[in-house]
Design goal:
269 residues, alpha/beta, Elongation Factor Tu (Ef-tu), domain 3, Rossmann fold, 2 domains, 7-stranded mixed beta sheet, 7 helices, 18 strands, globular, binds flavin-adenine dinucleotide, binds FE2/S2 (inorganic) cluster
Length: 269
C-alpha cells in the first residue's frame, strides 16, 4: 500500500548520539525521510507525550535519517529520552526547501537550526565555495563542527563563534555575518536558528542585495496549514514556508519582532 504522508509512520530508534549534554541525535531507518529536501520538516509523535515539528537530520548510513533534538520543555525532553529500540511516529515531509544557488555560498546555523544546513551541505556542488558559520552560546553547546567539515570539500571553511568566546571567534554569529557580507559578495546566504539571529542575517544580506533565505521555526500544531498557530503576519510557516526569501521577509512586520505563544497570543521577542 502506498504511504500516506499525512498518516504517522511508526519507526524504531536504532542509535542515539549525544552531541552535547542537552542535544541528541536519534537515528532510524525509513523509506522517505532520508531523501527529503533541505529545509523540509516532519511532525514527530512521541506516544503519550505530544507531537513536535522537527527538521529532518541526515545520516551517513544509506536508508537512514535522524532527528537532532535539544531538550527544552516537556515534549522535546520526551523525544530526547526515547531510547534505542523506542518507537516514534513521523508524518511528512512538509514545507518547501531552500533554493539551491551555485557559487559563493554562506550557510549560517544556530543550535538545532544547523540541522537543515547539514542537509543543504549534501546538495552543494564541489565547485561551490562554501562557508559554514556555527553559532553557539558557549563551547559546551557547539556541535556538528566535525560533521560540517567532513561534508565540505575542501574541509576548511567552517567557522565557529561563541557568544562568550570560550571556543572559536568571540561574539554573536550575526556580527560575523555582517563582517563577511561587507567584505565578500555571496551568491546566496542561508540561515536557520533563533529568529533574532535570522532577522539580523537577513538584514545584513538583503541590504546589500545578496540573495538570502531563512527557515522559520514557529509554534506548530497541525503542520499542514489548518490551525493557524504558525502564522507570521499573513504567512503560515508550515504551509507557505518554512523557507522564505529575504525579499519577502523584509516586508513582513512580524518577522524578528513578534511571535505567537502557545495560546496564539502575539508577544514581543
Ligand atoms: C519547522 C521546525 C523545525 C524544528 N526543528 C527542530 C529540530 O531539528 N530540533 C529541535 O530540537 N527543535 C526543532 N524545532 C523546535 C521544536 O519543535 C520545539 O523546540 C519544540 O516544539 C518545543 O519543545 P518543548 O519541549 O519546549 O515544547 P512544549 O513546551 O512541551 O510544547 C509543545 C507544544 O508547543 C509547540 N511548540 C512549542 N515550542 C515550539 C517551537 N519553538 N516551535 C514549534 N512548536 C513549538 C509544539 O508543537 C507542541 O504543540 C523545530 C520547530 C519547527 C517549527
Ligand atoms: S501549524 Fe497549523 S497552520 Fe501551520
Amino acid at each position: 500500500m502506498q504511504r500516506n504522508h499525512n498518516h504517522p509512520t511508526i519507526v524504531t530508534i536504532e542509535k542515539v548520539i549525544d552531541e552535547t549534554p542537552t542535544v541528541r541525535t536519534l537515528v532510524f531507518s525509513d523509506d522517505v525521510m532520508p531523501n527529503v529536501l533541505p529545509g523540509q520538516f516532519a511532525m514527530v509523535w512521541i506516544p503519550g507525550v505530544n507531537e513536535l515539528p522537527m527538521s529532518v537530520m541526515i545520516s551517513k548510513e544509506p536508508g537512514k535519517a535522524a532527528f537532532t533534538v535539544r531538550k527544552h520543555g516537556p515534549s522535546s525532553t520526551g523525544l530526547f529520552n526515547v531510547p534505542v529500540g523506542g518507537q516514534i511516529g513521523i508524518r511528512g515531509p512538509y514545507g518547501n526547501s531552500f533554493d539551491l544557488k551555485e557559487g559563493k555560498l554562506l550557510l549560517v546555523g544556530g543550535g538545532t537550526g544547523l540541522v537543515p544546513m547539514m542537509r543543504l551541505l549534501t546538495f552543494v556542488k564541489s565547485t561551490d565555495d562554501v562557508t559554514v558559520l556555527i553559532g553557539a552560546k558557549t563551547k559546551d553547546e557547539v556541535f556538528f563542527e566535525d560533521l560540517a567539515n567532513s561534508l565540505l570539500d575542501p574541509p576548511s571553511n567552517v567557522i565557529v563563534s561563541t557568544d562568550d568566546g570560550s571556543y572559536g571567534e568571540k561574539g554573536f554569529v550575526t556580527d560575523l555575518v555582517e563582517k563577511l557580507v561587507s567584505k565578500n559578495h555571496y551568491d546566496a546566504v542561508y540561515v536557520c536558528g533563533p529568529e533574532i539571529m535570522m532577522y539580523k542575517t537577513v538584514q545584513s544580506a538583503h541590504s546589500r542585495n545578496i540573495f538570502v533565505q531563512a527557515s522559520l521555526e514557529r509554534m506548530m500544531k497541525c503542520g499542514v496549514g489548518i490551525c493557524g498557530s504558525c502564522c507570521v503576519g499573513e504567512d503560515l510557516a508550515c504551509r507557505d514556508g518554512t523557507v522564505f526569501d529575504g525579499e519577502h521577509l523584509s516586508t513582513n512586520k512580524e518577522f524578528g519582532h513578534l511571535y505567537r505563544n502557545k495560546a496564539g497570543i502575539l508577544e514581543n521577542y
